[in-house]
């Protein structure tokens, strides 16, 4: 595999479940910065990567899959509710990292010099060395609970398990107060869009400075 291109500026979009990370990511894409959704990539390779499928079955049982598809309800029960998320992540994350590296090189070949990664658990094991700037999407618990209550794929028990798990991680401890950005998402969509627009302009300048320092 090719060596990681250190002249690329890498952003991270993170925050707890229901904070609005995907909305922020969408606005950032509109600004011309490509965003890799790590959680979606993980869900995809858990189905398409045969080696990973076998690992998950061995760890969590054949019931982890229904036919060719992922048994999300069963796996959520096993992982989030029974404290085995770390075991699942230990299997999935290395495969995700390989896939992300491939996608990054394709984006770099297209001429992009800034790449963003979106994930709720991106800081779970500390701050990744390659990340230059973290965008922490912060929203009140009341608003987050209201948002995720409208998700049809999660029942009440699943929602509570995920909220409890993510809240226990204290991910904000890995923020760099001098460089990282906390994005308040307690207002309107219009306000958020305006703030993201202003932020991306600022970050492009930050990344230009970082890029020049590498050369």
Task: Explain the layout of strands and helices.
Elements: E1 9-14, H1 21-30, E2 35-37, H2 38-48, H3 50-60, E3 65-66, E4 69-70, H4 72-79, H5 85-109, E5 114-118, E6 133-138, H6 141-148, H7 156-168, E7 181-184, H8 189-213
Parallel strand pairs: 1-5, 1-6, 2-5, 6-7
Antiparallel strand pairs: 3-4
CATH class: Alpha Beta
Tell the overall outline.
globular
Number of domain modules:
1
Largest sheet, in brief, is:
5 strands, parallel
Second rung of CATH, namely the architecture: 3-Layer(aba) Sandwich
| Counted beta strands | 7
Whole-angstrom Rg: 18 Å
Helix content percent band: 40-55%
Low-confidence stretches: none
Average pLDDT taken over every residue: 86
Count of helix runs: 8
Structure description:
This protein is of the alpha/beta class. The chain has one domain (9-213): Rossmann fold (3-Layer(aba) Sandwich), CATH 3.40.50. 52% of the residues lie in helices and 13% in strands. It has eight helices and seven strands; from the N terminus they run βαβααββααββααβα. The protein has a five-stranded parallel sheet with strand order 2-5-1-6-7, sandwiched between helices. A two-stranded antiparallel sheet has the order 3-4. α2 (38-48) crosses α5. The longest helix has 25 residues, at 85-109. The chain is globular, with a radius of gyration of 18 Å. The two termini are 23 Å apart.
């Amino acid at each position: 595999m090719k060596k990681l291109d250190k002249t690329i500026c890498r952003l991270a979009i993170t925050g707890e479940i229901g904070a609005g990370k995907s909305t922020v990511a969408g606005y950032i894409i509109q600004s011309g910065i490509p965003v890799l959704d790590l959680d979606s990539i993980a869900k995809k390779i858990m189905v398409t990567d045969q080696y990973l499928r076998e690992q998950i079955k061995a760890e969590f049982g054949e019931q982890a899959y229904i036919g060719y598809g992922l048994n999300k309800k069963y796996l959520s029960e096993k992982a989030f509710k029974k404290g085995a998320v770390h075991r699942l992540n230990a299997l999935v994350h290395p495969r995700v990292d390989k896939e992300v590296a491939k996608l990054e090189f394709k984006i770099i070949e297209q001429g992009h010099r800034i790449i963003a990664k979106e994930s709720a658990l991106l800081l779970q094991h500390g701050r990744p060395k390659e990340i230059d700037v973290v965008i922490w999407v912060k929203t009140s618990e009341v608003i987050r609970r209201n948002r995720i209550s409208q998700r049809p794929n999660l029942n009440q028990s699943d929602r509570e398990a995920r909220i409890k798990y993510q809240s226990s991680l204290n991910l904000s401890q890995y923020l760099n107060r001098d460089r990282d950005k906390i994005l308040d998402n307690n207002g309107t969509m219009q306000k958020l869009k305006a703030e993201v627009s202003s932020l991306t302009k600022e970050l492009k300048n930050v990344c230009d400075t970082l890029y020049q320092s590498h050369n």
